[in-house]
Amino acid sequence: MEVSFLGAAKEVGRSAIMLNGRRNYLLDCGLKISGVSEEYPLIEPQDVRRLDGVIISHAHLDHSGYAPALTAKGYRGKYWMTKPTRDLVQLLLSDYLSIEKATHAYTTRDLNYFLKNIQVLEYERRKEEVTFFDSGHILGSAMTLVEDSGHKILYTADLNTRETRLLDGAKKGLQADTLIIESTYGSTADQHLSSKEIYASLVKEVKETLDKNGKVIIPSFAIGRGQEILFTLENYLKSKMLPPTPIYLDGMVKKALRIYRHNAIYLKDEVKRRILTSDDDPFKCEYYTAPERKDRSDVLEQEKCVIVTTSGMLNGGPVLFYLKKLAGDPKNKLILVGYQAQGTRGRQLLEGANEIEIDGEKIEIKLTVTQAKFSAHSDHKELVEFTKSIRGLKRVFVQHGEASKCEEFAQELGRKLKGVEVTAPALGETFQLR
């Protein structure tokens, strides 16, 4: 059995891992989007043509965004994923194609072929050599266990063992001889606040701004983070810990909400019950308004409000409209609530930039920029605990993290796991499992 790391090795983005054994699988096939540039996995046509299946762990573009391009490289097989991932990936990939730019990774024809050849797998129901387990990251996200050529290989993809407002945490204690684990927050310095502290910090930042009659912009990923932010704001408004305030929901997060409602059985029991059996649906809430594009200027006329919109790293989307209009007023606030990749506007602002460029125009930043440290990834301690829970472990590959974090986490696991081989692969590196 060979394992080849064709992306996300000592980097975040373009996840793609090739397994060549009795059968050949590609685990994820994503894009690396940094600012306006893109990087693709190191996948050759001759490798694509011998694939028996492509497995997509979840809908985020860094794991799914290059998959339709495999058609042009000669792939004619199935794409395996959960039902929520199927629904969400159609939304995200269609949106990716709609963005005006010189080139895309694939064509509309490629996307249509991809969508027609999706095969849905449920959690914990084995299909051939493959079994999915809930990874706790976003709706429908999956860890993948591949049993082939005498090996049990567990690929975590993006992992969250912590329970959130919407999802249960990832399942621990699985059996595997080989673990491929992420390290987004793999450094010993990466220690998340408790969920209660994170929610309280967000509401504190929001309330401070509203008390000054300012407007709050919360750039959010359409999937996962946007829903959790809305759920949190709704909870604090209902308990009157936030004053009555207009909340505007804009961008792709609006469409994603409908998909969450249609896949309620994959959410936590409490949320599922509210959606399916009561008039208390958190995603059809009296507190939210979803403006049309033509009505965005009306939102700005509000004395104070909260705007939850895409995109989470300020790469594009309605957030740029709102930021251009609101950046010049110190009463306003931008609250970053997700990971900000290098080269993105979000990362620039997080690092203290006084101006950013939007549509060729320099925008002076006078509003307050702050961060509420939400995460859909496990932190360092949680990653260690998860790894220790795996039964029968012989080797670990650490990937999906900045180079320093991959290397640090691999070194620490090597010290803590006696008799287990731990490696942080380089991009393009292949390993023979014996």
What does this structure look like?
The chain has 2 domains: 2-189 and 377-432, Ribonuclease Z/Hydroxyacylglutathione hydrolase-like (Metallo-beta-lactamase, Chain A), CATH 3.60.15.10; 195-371, Rossmann fold (3-Layer(aba) Sandwich), CATH 3.40.50. The protein has helices spanning 45-48, 61-64, 83-98, 108-116, 195-211, 225-238, 253-262, 269-277, 296-300, 319-326, 345-350, 380-389, 403-416; strands at residues 2-7, 16-20, 24-27, 32-34, 37-39, 53-55, 79-81, 118-120, 130-134, 142-148, 151-155, 178-182, 215-219, 247-250, 288-289, 305-309, 333-336, 355-358, 361-364, 368-371, 395-399, 421-423, 430-432. The strands form 5 sheets. The chain has a 7-stranded mixed β-sheet with strand order 8-7-6-3-2-1-23. A 6-stranded mixed β-sheet has the order 9-10-11-12-21-22, covered by helices on one side. A 6-stranded parallel β-sheet has the order 15-14-16-13-17-20, sandwiched between helices. It contains 13 helices and 23 strands. A hairpin with a 2-residue loop joins strand 4 and strand 5 (37-39). Helix 3 (83-98) runs antiparallel to helix 7. The mean pLDDT is 94. Helices cover 29% and strands 22% of the residues. It is of the alpha/beta class.
